[in-house]
């Protein structure tokens, strides 16, 4: 088993996006594509000789093949050890936890998150740093630079490694430690939450439904919710990870998790419903007859987190991405804690968490998490909700109503226009950017613009600056619209329009969000000419 050096040339388009490199699976399978990128990660982080890495993924098509290639390349590049999840599976939060718990030099996660999987769908690879979090731009820039100057990669010629059962083995001089992907993570959850209280709730007849969407959280949810907490067997549905996620789209939102929505809106709805995405870092929360927006979920969790043992002393601060609603800001204000506003992308929370400035973070894109790992964490959010429900013995709907009465309601919705031609999407954003400074004082669809700017972020911990992070327009009545292009797509452009309106009138807290937001929706279209410029009559996805 001799390491060989393979000559190669730089491949264009290997620039990591919001969350690592995402491409069509068939692109990842093209000759040298994966190998080039893996070598560039190794080179970009200063080599991996003598280092220990974590490796695992969400089980999508090509996960197993890519893992074998990475193991052979890690061995050829002199890594000391790779800790890999059994069958090369690890949810993203579990990988983050393993990196931290074992003090490794980072890890590689195979996933395109909530994007569909399969030979004609999407694949992805991202490097997480030793703090367990997604690599910040300072690191991904180096990786990208490495892709552009690459002339060779190293790989071992060897048979596949057997990843079917836990244990230690060797590949060349490198150790491979295969671990149960669930065990350490489940142990961490037991440390954070009051499992006895949740067990008590469930044994009193509280019913839940967790939809794993044929993705990686299935085994985690069965072990934690059914085996350890006593939820009725079958509470976790679509629990077996499949390479194409059962032909579905493993994105926990009301469109793609429509079966869960139907179950939660039915006469026989359970008390609590939740879903997670391909790699287990996102979450969707529902109560009987109600959907909780991610922004409201973050705010409500921040308000009640002290009910869980790990947060009993209160939160050091909270953080949200810029397009996320201001609901959590209102909680932070009432608690007298700091609230940070970051660009979209979990990696921007890393410094705040590491520095102890924020304990809880969240994004409108269905991500919520805390300083227990450095990724967002779907099952963690589900367990925090269950802990709160167990401690208060109130329903999800009651908790929401009380929250809005106390803090006001930030009506919120995101409208996505998918697969728009990139030229058109860029033209729309450029056009809007060009006229931002003229907007204040003007009225659109009856709303008057108060302020308009392009968001940039100065990291308070390391002073780094991220610019061009979304165009935001606020109106005098407390409404807001944000325009951004997605950084996670693999084809064309996705225009995201984030809409928000604050309501504090107690008689107006129970409206349909699309109706409550109608004036903002109309103003957004008038300002940006969405329909005219994209040729679309309506968004593809409304969350
Ligand atoms: C991933 C990232 C999130 C981000 C989301 C949406 O899930 O981990 O941090 O909010 O993608 O990103 P996008 O650029 O597609 O709006
Ligand atoms: Zn994900």
TrEMBL record:
Residues 14-150, 185-286, 295-406 form the Alpha-D-phosphohexomutase alpha/beta/alpha domain. Its cofactor is Mg(2+). It is an enzyme of class 5 (isomerase). It holds the Pfam family PGM_PMM_II. One of its GO terms (molecular function) is magnesium ion binding. Residues 1-20 are annotated as: Disordered. Keywords: Carbohydrate metabolism, Glucose metabolism, Isomerase, Magnesium, Metal-binding, Phosphoprotein. This is phosphoglucomutase (alpha-D-glucose-1,6-bisphosphate-dependent). It comes from Limimaricola pyoseonensis.
């Amino acid at each position: 088993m001799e390491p060989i050096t393979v000559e190669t040339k730089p491949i264009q388009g290997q620039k990591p996006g919001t969350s690592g490199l995402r491409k069509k699976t068939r692109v990842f399978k093209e000759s040298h594509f994966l190998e080039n990128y893996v070598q560039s990660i190794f080179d970009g982080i200063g080599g991996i000789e003598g280092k220990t890495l974590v490796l695992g993924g969400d089980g999508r098509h090509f996960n197993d093949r890519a893992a074998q290639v990475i193991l052979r390349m890690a061995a050829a590049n002199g890594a000391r050890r790779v800790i890999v999840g059994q069958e090369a599976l690890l949810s993203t939060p579990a990988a983050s936890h393993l990196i931290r718990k074992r003090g490794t030099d980072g890890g590689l996660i195979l996933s395109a998150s909530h994007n569909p999987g399969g030979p004609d769908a999407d694949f992805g690879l991202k490097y997480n740093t030793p703090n367990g979090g997604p690599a910040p731009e300072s690191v991904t820039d180096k990786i990208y630079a490495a892709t552009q100057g690459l002339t060779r990669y190293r790989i071992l010629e060897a048979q596949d490694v057997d990843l079917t059962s836990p244990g230690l083995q060797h590949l060349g001089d490198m150790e491979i430690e295969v671990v149960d992907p669930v065990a350490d993570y489940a142990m961490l959850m037991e440390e954070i939450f009051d499992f006895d209280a949740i067990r008590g709730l469930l044994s009193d007849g509280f019913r839940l439904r967790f939809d794993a969407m044929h993705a990686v959280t299935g085994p985690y949810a069965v072990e934690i919710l059914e085996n350890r907490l006593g939820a009725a067997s079958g509470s976790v549905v679509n629990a077996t990870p499949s390479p194409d996620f059962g032909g579905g789209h493993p994105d926990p939102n009301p469109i793609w998790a429509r079966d869960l929505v139907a179950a939660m809106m039915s006469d026989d709805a359970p008390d609590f419903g939740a879903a997670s995405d391909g790699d287990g870092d996102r979450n969707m929360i529902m109560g009987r007859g109600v959907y909780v927006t991610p922004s409201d979920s973050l705010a409500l969790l921040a308000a009640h987190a002290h009910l869980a043992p790990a947060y009993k002393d209160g939160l050091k601060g909270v953080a949200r991405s810029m397009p996320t609603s201001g609901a959590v800001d209102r909680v932070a204000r009432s608690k007298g804690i700091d609230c940070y506003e970051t660009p979209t992308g979990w990696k921007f929370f890393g410094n705040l968490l590491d520095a102890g400035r924020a304990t809880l973070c969240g994004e409108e894109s269905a991500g919520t998490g805390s300083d227990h790992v450095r990724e967002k964490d779907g099952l963690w959010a589900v367990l925090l909700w269950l802990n709160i429900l167990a401690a208060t013995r109130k329903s999800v709907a009651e908790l929401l109503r009380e929250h809005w009465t106390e803090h006001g309601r930030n009506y919120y919705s995101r409208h996505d226009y998918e697969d728009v031609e990139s030229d058109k999407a860029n033209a729309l954003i450029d056009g809007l950017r060009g006229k931002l400074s003229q907007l204040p004082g003007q009225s659109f669809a009856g709303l008057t613009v108060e302020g308009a700017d392009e968001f940039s972020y100065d990291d308070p911990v390391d002073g780094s600056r991220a610019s061009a992070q979304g165009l935001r327009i606020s109106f005098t009545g407390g409404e807001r619209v944000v325009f951004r292009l997605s950084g996670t797509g693999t084809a064309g452009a996705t225009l995201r329009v984030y809409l928000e309106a604050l309501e504090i009138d107690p008689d107006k807290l129970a409206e349909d969000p699309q109706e409550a937001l109608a004036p903002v929706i109309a103003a957004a279209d008038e300002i940006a000419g969405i329909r005219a410029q994209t040729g679309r009559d309506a968004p593809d996805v409304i969350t």
